[in-house]
Amino acid sequence: MYEDLFSLNDKVAAVIGGGGVLAGEMALGLASAGADVSVLDFNLENAEKKAEAVRSLGRRAQALKVDATRRDELESALEAILKEFGHVDILINAAGINSATPFFEITEEEWHKILDVDLKSVFLACQVFGKQMVEAGRGGSIINISSASSGPPLSKVFTYSVAKGGVNQITMFLAREFAPYKVRVNAILPGFFPAEQNRKVLTPERVEQIMKHTPMNRFGEPSELVGVTIFLASDKAASFVTGAIVRVDGGFMAMTI
Ligand SMILES: NC(=O)c1ccc[n+]([C@@H]2O[C@H](COP(=O)([O-])OP(=O)(O)OC[C@H]3O[C@@H](n4cnc5c(N)ncnc54)[C@H](O)[C@@H]3O)[C@@H](O)[C@H]2O)c1
């Protein structure tokens, strides 16, 4: 019963940002539960490495170069996935960039760039892949990657926080919209995990602040996102779970002073 509950056999996952640290690990987790995986990323070399790792687990995998801020590229990717695998059941939206530019120095160009990658990409992928899931009638699971900055905003990462607040709204709005079609829409809210997009933001002073505010007093490990990813992806284990924003943050969001 337990294996059946969490099995993703016969499922196909599209993992956007899957060449990255967190979503790469999530892609491997989905494969370990039985899913075939299409790894989509701006960085094709990294996507290919993750696809190879999925294959080494005995699952089918594909790597695609995609700029997730462009509808035409997402549509072409969907076409390539359907051609290769025949259907798509799971979508992970994890493309992300970040910047710690002080508020008065943020240019319109930077504002648009961050909102495009961190928010518009989620909107576009939910339209492109969500439409396919709704029309195919097989149900589905969309998992957006939110952030601790989506709640009471974090200092420094202004535009990123605006974007992640929007990701929570998209998640809850589409949970409502897609429920009649058995397409569930949830978000994972990671606390702090050292990765590429936040390398410059994690200065020693910032790390000290984060640790003081994290009851578990450490960073997360990417592998600690795998359990919740498989759970949310499974239409048996999470059959009544939609619109949820699940924190994996060592207690960060539960802390005040
Ligand atoms: N690391 C953390 O502590 C943390 C915390 C909360 C949320 N997140 C979120 O997790 C997600 C994954 O980030 P990560 O921390 O693994 O960083 P990462 O930099 O390792 O991964 C981000 C990936 O997004 C890809 N990407 C960037 N722009 C893209 C575009 N236009 N089209 C397609 N792909 C694009 C990058 O190539 C990279 O592979 C992001 O949404 C990030 O905001 C991370």
Tally of discrete structural domains: 1
Could you give me the name of the CATH homologous superfamily?
NAD(P)-binding Rossmann-like Domain
CATH architecture: 3-Layer(aba) Sandwich
CATH fold-level topology: Rossmann fold
- Measured distance between first and last alpha carbons: 43 Å
Order of helices and strands: HEHEHEHEHEHEHHE
Share of helix, binned: 40-55%
CATH top level class name: Alpha Beta
Strand order of the largest sheet: 3-2-1-4-5-6-7
Task: Give a list of the ligands.
Answer: nicotinamide-adenine-dinucleotide
Oligomer: single chain
Number of helices: 8
Note the beta-strand portion.
5-15%
Uncertain runs are none
The overall pLDDT, averaged over residues, is 96
Structural class: alpha/beta
Number of strands: 7
Q: What's the gyration radius in Å?
A: 17 Å
Descriptive report:
This protein has helices spanning 2-6, 21-32, 44-56, 71-85, 108-136, 158-178, 204-212, 226-233; strands spanning 12-16, 36-41, 61-65, 90-93, 140-145, 183-190, 245-248. The chain contains eight helices and seven strands, in the order H-E-H-E-H-E-H-E-H-E-H-E-H-H-E. The chain is globular, with a radius of gyration of 17 Å. It is 44% helix and 15% strand. The chain has one domain: NAD(P)-binding Rossmann-like Domain (Rossmann fold, 3-Layer(aba) Sandwich), CATH 3.40.50.720. It has 257 residues and is α/β, with parallel strands linked by helices. The longest helix is centred in the middle third of the chain and has 29 residues, at 108-136. 46% of the residues are buried. Strand 5, helix 6 (158-178) and strand 6 (183-190) form a beta-alpha-beta unit. It has a seven-stranded parallel beta sheet, sandwiched between helices.
